[in-house]
Amino acid sequence: MSKTFYITTPIYYVNARPHIGHAYTTIACDTIARRQRMMGFDTYFLTGTDEHGQKIERAAQAAGKTPQQLTTEVSAEFRALWDRLGLTYDDFIRTTSERHKQGVQALWRKIRDNGHIYKGHYTGQYCVFDELYVDAVGPGAPCPECGRPTETVREENYFFKLSAFQDRLLRLYTEQPDFIRPEARRNEVISFVRSGLRDLSISRSTFSWGIPVPDDPKHVIYVWLDALANYITALGYGSDNTGLFDKFWPANLQMIGKEIVRFHCVYWPAFLMVAGLPLPQRILAHGWLLFEENKMSKSRGNIVRAETIVDVLGADALRYFLLREVVFGQDGSFSFDALVQRYNADLANGLGNLASRTLTMITRYFRGEVPYPSRASSRKASDDAIAQTASKLINEYNSLFEDRQFSRALEAAWGLVANVDKYIVENEPWALGEKQDEDSRARLATVLYTCAEALRIVTALAHPVIPEATARIWGQLGLGEIKKHPLADLRWGQLRLGTKLGKIEPVFPRADKSAIEKMQTAEDQGRSAAAAATQDAPSVAPIAIQAVGPPAASATTPDGRISIDDFAKVELRVGQVKIAEKVKGADKLLRLEVDLGTEMRQVVAGIAEAYTPESLIGRKVVIVANLAPRKLRGLESNGMIVAASPEGGKPVLCSFLEDVPVGTRLK
Ligand code: MSP
Q: Which distant-in-sequence residues (6+ apart) come within 8 Å of 15 by Cβ?
């Protein structure tokens, strides 16, 4: 029986369109899954979407859609992107699917029947953005995780007896020291659990977008219990007995971003323990992809879409960049400049060039057949040095990869590419090719065999990372289907003499400066189009005066009045200013980051003469939330702050005497 390997990504929230942050995790898992398959493991790779909860319900409301519509649409976008990127997932789970619902309810019953659920009253703060109960005091108190204002929840809830798990969890972290990777995350979790665990509220009754609690449908199951269960419901737990659960559970590797470590390393093992199920072997947390110094996220509006990169440079370029440039486990920055630089240096000038030089010369000098490395007399120390480096590389690469040090593994592999480049320059095969004497021919054969064999080895090792290009190089080497190549048996000297090469074509054409511009423009257009698609431009004059931007189109009836429908087109919401700063070179403008409850908005407002930035932080304001974005001083303004503008006076911000929750709509 073959060895099995089960790997999972987190399931992605569908309140946001997929971006390269999501792609990062999924690509890393795809790379591991591909490699495991080449290593002979019977591999199962799961991904999917997380579709319940208050955050999704509100996002749907804000988009004027039903939650069903929004979740179906966005989930399909994730799936289409994964397909476009050629990701080899075996299953894509949606938490709104029937099989998942059945599985979650079965898990609930199991936990309940084992005596770990009780009913109680919860009063406290809840962060809708993180879908997390937090230790914060008072209405609107900031969430300790993300800083957004929390909401007060007073409800009758079901509770999970998490407090009973402190010792068992600490024992788990000691007995299975690799359960949480990397070490820094493990230490964080240990100190969190050591500081004491409180019981966890695991149901909500104030909204309905979720899976009903068995036998008490007034409650829906807490979205994190619902979501975490996907890793087993996808294998048929609690629904179909497909055999997958018995075959693949427990997971070998569950990959997550660092912000969801607590859910996966504390709650998840506790739920599994009560249900009497084995625990995953490893939870591996990676860092964040940053764009312009900040975590890439929809709420910051600083996302980059994978499609943009795929259109211009191809999926392999994105995959290679993410795994080579970012030290896995740490945060890493993304920029188009760095992407193109890496692409040209390592892929176009590196592997691509090595493949085309080597294969073209074999075609020219040996009629497209891999030549025999000749007699001992034609051998030089530099040939053996390449062979030794390649053999060493195979072991080094494998162990770095096992350790998920992708960047170092690729660096090592490209070290061989650089060595072979140098070897080619030193041995001048083109000069040897001009000579017809036997010694020169023998020497040329040895040199080109050495190059081709090194190329084959790098290509096989890199296949899980850059599958498309390596499959093409493999074909050009005349070697059939690369993914079927047993990686565990890879050795120097396996390239068969006389192998007939395939058709030689460039795999990584060089990218010039226009590639950066193209991607930049596509991103700018994509953002504007997305904003326009989700926002009905108001057809009426703004209710109050905003210092930025011209008033919108005029009223619709002869006497200047508008209908209620016209008014309803303007989405006014309460927001809270989180960041305020002056805009360089513009006396009147402030750049604000405003929390709208479901997202963070950048707004540029002409109120600098009336308000200092400090006086605005924490202040609640009214925002026209569905205004098409516009650029001011190079900054995108995504909404308008409502203010009264007395004739000749300074603008006065609209505010409330009572406390109003962030995100509330004004009607
Ligand atoms: N739905 C929950 C997870 C439930 S798992 C049972 C969730 N979803 S999420 O869409 O907000 O983010 C999920 C994951 O996407 C992160 O943990 C991370 O793996 C990936 N990323 C999202 N943005 C990212 C970056 N900017 N950088 C790196 N990874 C990012 O949390």
A: 55, 56, 59, 70, 74, 298, 598
- What are the backbone dihedrals phi and psi of residue 340, each rounded to the nearest 5 degrees, phi first? -70, -40
Distance 22 CA to ligand 1 centre (A): 6
Please list every protein residue whose CB sits less than 6 Å from any atom of ligand 1.
10-13, 21-22, 24-25, 50, 227-228, 230, 256-257, 260, 288-289, 295-297
pTM for the model stands at 0.81
Which region holds residue 597: left if phi is over 0, alpha if psi is between -120 and 50, else beta? Answer: left
- Asked if residue 631 lies in contact with residue 595, where contact means CB atoms within 8 angstroms, the answer is no
Å from CA of 62 to ligand 1 middle: 21
* Alpha-carbon gap, residue 27 to 86, rounded angstroms: 9
Chain centroid to Cα 277, Å, comes to: 28
Percent over 90 (pLDDT), the chain:
70
User: What is the CA(458)–ligand 1 centre distance, in A?
Assistant: 32
Q: What Rg value do the Cα atoms of the chain yield, rounded? A: 29
Q: How far apart are CA 338 and CA 466, in angstroms?
A: 18
What are the tens digits of pLDDT across the range 260-281? 999 999 999 999 999 999 999 9
pLDDT at 582: 86
d(CA 388, CA 354): 19
Beta-carbon-side half-sphere exposure of residue 240 (alpha carbons within 13 Å): 10
Calpha distance 97→440 (Å, rounded) = 67
Q: Is the dihedral of CA 66, 72, 73, 74 positive or negative?
A: positive
Handedness of CA 177, 182, 184, 189 (dihedral sign): negative
Under DSSP, the state recorded for 377 is G
The Cα 240–Cα 101 span in angstroms is: 12
Q: Which regions of the chain are under pLDDT 50?
A: 534-558
The DSSP element (H or E) to which 337 belongs, if any, is: helix 336-342
User: For 573, which DSSP code?
Assistant: E
> Which tokens in the block code for residue 333?
């920055």
Structure letter (DSSP) for residue 602: E
